[in-house]
């Protein structure tokens, strides 16, 4: 008999996602195994009065959970893939990538106005520089200000009138069963998603062969291929979810198409490109090199300096 301890953040969304993973795992674990959930507070959950970009960068929502894995206090960790930095600590590995939900972003507005219909100078709530950059690139007349907290907190702030609209990941809204609150799913031609958005990562220790074998049963190969290309692209910039970097790959048969973007938080410039092929790591490197040739590294260095000042 084995008791599998699964670590997760404490938010309603994180717990919902972890419960979904536990249900999926039931089909693959030996009958004698039991599963328990352990809720862990991360640094990103504790600091709510500062924008994500200024809190300290990569791994804000995963470091404490990863440490619990390394220490042996938990056996598995469930993360939103977009929260995972491009590089993983030595000793840990991605045991499974789940079937991807809708990777796009969505708009929830108080009046039911879409992104195109919002009045001039309307206030949009998001703490993501990626979303901010693309909103302002599309509609420079809008105003963006940070909104932190869980989904319930953000929705409450919207309805209280602190914002005219907020932008969230469509996948999180779907997992919470809040689809009826969505005003608009934003086209990925207007707002390219975050790397890994819509997928979940099930992380474990690299030497836990027994667990790795079990996790392969719930791994979704196409999503894994797409995410590998996206994360290779992100890793080239030493980036995390706090920087204005977007990457989205689609898979058809054995072909992967990867689109990527690096932008200034003010909306201009926006550097973008795409690559296509059969090998995700190669595609991620090709696309990152393309954007670096356009000046992406210098742009991101400037963004980092602005964050730190």
Structure description:
There is one protein chain. This protein has 309 residues and is of the alpha/beta class. It has helices at 12-25, 43-46, 52-55, 63-71, 129-138, 151-159, 170-175, 209-215, 221-236, 280-294, 296-308, and strands spanning 3-8, 34-39, 76-80, 92-97, 105-109, 123-125, 143-145, 165-169, 184-185, 200-205, 245-252, 255-263, 270-277. The strands form 3 sheets. It has a 5-stranded mixed sheet with strand order 2-1-3-10-4, with helices on both faces. Helix 9 packs parallel to helix 10. The radius of gyration is 19 Å and the shape is globular.
Please give a quick description of this structure.
One of its GO terms (cellular component) is cytoplasm. By secondary structure, this protein is of the alpha/beta class.
């Amino acid at each position: 008999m084995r008791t599998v301890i699964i670590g997760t953040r404490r938010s309603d969304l994180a717990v919902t996602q972890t419960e979904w993973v536990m249900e999926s795992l039931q089909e693959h674990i030996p009958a004698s195994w039991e599963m328990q959930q352990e809720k862990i507070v991360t640094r990103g959950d504790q600091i709510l009065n500062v924008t994500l970009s200024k809190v300290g960068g990569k791994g804000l929502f995963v470091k404490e959970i990863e440490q619990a894995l390394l220490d042996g206090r938990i056996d598995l960790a469930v993360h939103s893939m977009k929260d995972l930095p491009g590089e993983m600590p030595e000793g840990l590995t991605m045991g499974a990538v789940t079937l991807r939900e809708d990777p796009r972003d969505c708009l929830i507005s108080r009046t039911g106005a879409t992104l195109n219909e919002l009045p001039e100078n309307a206030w949009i709530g998001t703490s993501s520089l990626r979303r901010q950059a693309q909103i302002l690139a599309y509609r420079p007349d809008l105003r963006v200000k940070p909104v932190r907290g869980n989904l319930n907190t953000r929705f409450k702030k919207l309805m209280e009138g602190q914002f005219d609209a907020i932008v969230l990941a469509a996948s999180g809204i779907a997992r919470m069963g809040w689809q009826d609150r969505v005003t608009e799913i934003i086209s990925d031609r207007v707002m390219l998603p975050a790397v890994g958005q819509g997928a979940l990562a099930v992380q474990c220790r690299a030497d836990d062969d027994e667990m790795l074998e079990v996790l392969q049963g719930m791994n979704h190969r196409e999503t894994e291929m797409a995410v590998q290309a996206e994360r290779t692209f992100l890793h080239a910039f030493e980036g995390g979810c706090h920087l204005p970097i977007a990457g989205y790959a689609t898979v058809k048969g054995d072909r992967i198409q990867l689109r990527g973007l690096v932008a200034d938080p003010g909306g201009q410039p926006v550097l973008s490109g795409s690559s296509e092929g059969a090998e995700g790591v190669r595609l991620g490197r090709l696309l990152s090199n393309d954007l670096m040739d356009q000046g992406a590294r210098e742009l991101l260095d400037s963004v980092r300096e602005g964050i730190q000042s």
